[in-house]
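Table 4 source record.
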Amino acid sequence: MINSPRIVFMGTPDFAVPALQTLLDHHENVVAVVCQPDRPKGRGRKLTPPPVKELAEAAGIKVLQPVKVKTELARELAPFKPDLIIVAAYGRILSEEVLQLPKFGCLNIHGSLLPKYRGAAPIQWAILNGDSETGVTIMQMDTGLDTGDILLTGKLNIDMQDTSGTLFGKMAKLGSKLLMEALDKLKAGSLTPQKQDNNHATLAPPLGKEAAPISWHKSAAEISCQIRGLDPWPLAHTSMNDKWLRLFQPTALDKSDAEKAAPGTILRADKNGLLIACLNSALLVKEIQMAGRKRMPVAAFIQGRPLKVGHLLGE
C-alpha cells in the first residue's frame, strides 16, 4: 500500500484543469504544479497565465514555469522530492532525468486510445479522420513519443456535431475520472501495465493554419470533419470576394437537387443556413464569420449582406 504520495502535476491548458481539480477535490498531496510560461494574449498582448497556473495559485500550490525545460526542470523539481509526476497536456518533452526523478515514474493523460494517435493533436485528428469513437489512455511515460505502457483506458463516442472544442471538454472529464482510478490502483499496488502494439501505432502531428483552407472538391462528409476538427483552432475557411469566410455547425447532405452544380457553388442561403455544393454531395452550415465581422447565424448574416445563389466559393 502507498499512502499519500507526493505528487507534482504538470499541465498548461484548459484540458488539464479538470485533472488537477479532481486531485485537489480528493485531497491528494500535490506539492507543486509545473506549466508553461505566461503568454501574450488578446489585442493588447497582455501576459496571461495559463489556466492550470490560475487554479494552482488559487489553491495555494507552488507553481514552476521553467523556460529551458531540458536544463532547468529536473533541478527545480528535485527539492520537492516527488513520488509521482502526473502530466496532462503540459506541451513540452520531458528529459530522461525528469522521468526518472519520481519513485513511481510519470503518468500521462493522453487523449486517444493508444497506440492510435500518438502525438500532439490526437483529439483533432480523430474528428478529421471521421472516427466514431475515441478515448483516453492513462500511460506510464518513457522517452518515446507516447510509447509507454498502457495503464488504463476509457472509450468515448464522437457525436456528428462534436468539434475539437466540445470533445476536449468530454475527454478532460473522462481523463480526470480515469486518473483517480489509476491513482487508487497505484496506491493499492494493483496497476497492471500493458505494452503497446507498435504495429497498430498511428501519429497525430500538430496542426497549423495550412490545414484550414477548404477544398470543395472533397465530399461534404470530409469537409464537415475538417470544419469540426479545426474548431476552435485554426478554424477552417473558404474565400468569397477575396475575403476569408469561416464556416461552423456543418451537416453533410445528399446533393440530389443540384447534381450539376460545381463544387463550391452556393445552392441556398436562407434562415435554415448556407447550402454549398461539394463533390457528389452538399454541405449545410448554420453559422459563418466573414473577415472583419463577428461569428453569427446565417439567418442574421444575410439580413445585412445577402449571399448570392450561384456564387462560387473558394475562387
